[in-house]
Design a protein that fits this description.
By secondary structure, the chain is mostly helical. It has one domain. It is built from five helices and four strands. It has a two-stranded antiparallel sheet with strand order 1-2. A two-stranded parallel ribbon has the order 3-4. A hairpin with a 2-residue loop joins strand 1 and strand 2. Helix 2 crosses helix 3, helix 2 runs antiparallel to helix 5 and helix 3 crosses helix 5.
Length: 178
């Protein structure tokens, strides 16, 4: 394998993630059962509540995987002696941008080049431009260049981003019942 430009990511399935604990969220408690209690708040389980809980869990999954990917990328930077970003630059807006990019990536079953082009297009649409330094406030990113021009370490970090995206999509889909 060369730089992986023609390689599709491994297909990730629920079997790869393992079984999630089965939680029965019913619209109506059966006779003799109580509504679910979350903290000190009793929540009746109507269809709307179930959907809200699913959306909440799915959002939490994407945020968790975004953080995991960032932690992995940070450790790779340390290992390679690259600059490590100050975590304060990752505002909620920045994390939301990264989650959107992860969701787009997870939806694509294409080559590394095509996923990178999609990632670049999303950023350009949002006003980002190439810059030698990553700066969310100025919307500059050093990875806004063709895939083949990226350093090998950056391509590896992009693949890790893709892998985390795919696993997040699988776990999120399991919560959705997919």
């Amino acid at each position: 394998m060369t730089d992986g430009t023609q390689r599709d990511l491994q297909t990730i399935t629920p079997a790869d993630v393992g079984e999630l604990p089965t939680i029965l969220l019913e619209a109506e408690p059966t006779e003799g059962e109580e509504p679910i209690t979350i903290g000190a708040v009793r929540v009746p389980l109507d269809d709307g509540t179930v959907e809200e809980l699913r959306a909440m869990f799915q959002g939490a999954i994407w945020r968790l995987f975004e953080r995991m990917q960032g932690d992995i990328a940070r450790e790779i930077r340390v290992m390679l002696g690259e600059e490590v970003y100050d975590p304060r630059i990752f505002t909620e807006e920045e994390r939301a941008r990264r989650i959107e990019a992860m969701q787009r990536c997870a939806a694509l079953k294409t080559s590394d080049v095509e996923r990178h082009e999609s990632w670049m297009a999303m950023h350009v649409e949002q006003g980002w431009v190439y810059g030698e330094e990553f700066n969310p406030a100025a919307k500059t990113h050093p990875n806004l260049m063709p895939w083949q021009d990226l350093p090998a370490s950056t391509r590896s970090k992009a693949r890790i981003f893709d892998i985390c995206s795919r696993y997040a999509a699988v776990v999120s889909g399991m919560i959705a019942g997919g």
